[in-house]
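Page header: ASSEMBLY MODEL / two components / 198 residues total.
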Amino acid sequence: MIQIVAKHFVKPEHVESYLKLAGKLVAKTRQLDAGCIQYALFQDLKDSSILTIIEQWESQDALDQHMAAAHFKEMVPKLGEFCEKPGEINLYRPVEAEQ
Amino acid sequence: MIQIVAKHFVKPEHVESYLKLAGKLVAKTRQLDAGCIQYALFQDLKDSSILTIIEQWESQDALDQHMAAAHFKEMVPKLGEFCEKPGEINLYRPVEAEQ
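Prediction written out in full:
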C-alpha cells in the first residue's frame, strides 16, 4: 500500500476554482481508477488556501496508471496553474503499530 | 470530522527511537481514546527521517481529550526531542467531491 499526502498552496483568488476542479478530479479518480483505496480532498481549517489530497493506492502500478489517466493529465496541470508555489507531495509506507 | 496530518522531521540518528515510541503512542491512542476514527504512522519512501501521523477524529472535543490524555502528554514531548525542527501540523475539514 502507498499512502500519499499532496499539499497544495493555492493563490487565494483561485481557491474556489481549485475546489471545483479538484472535486472533479476526485470524482473521476474514484469512479475510474483501479487500485484506489482512498482519494479525498481536504481544506486547512486555519488557512483556506491550503488544499490537500490524501490518497491510498494498492500498489505503485495502480498509482502509475492513475498518473497516466486522461483525467489526471488534463486536470493536474490546470490545478497547478492555480497554485502560488509547487506543492509538497510525500509518498509513504505504513508503519505497523506495536501491539 | 477533523483530519490531521502531523509531519515530523526526525534526526536521522533517532529514527529508530522515534518509530518505537510513536508506535506505542499509536497503540495507546487506538486502545484508549474515544472518537478516534484513524491514527496511523507513516514513513516517507524517499526520506526515512520524515515520519507522519495521519489522524481522523469525530470532533474537536475528541481531539481535545486525546491531547489531554496521559499517554499524549507523556510521549509527545519525548517524540519532539527526537526531531531536528518543529513538525508541520495541519488540521483539515473534508471537502465533498462533486457527484
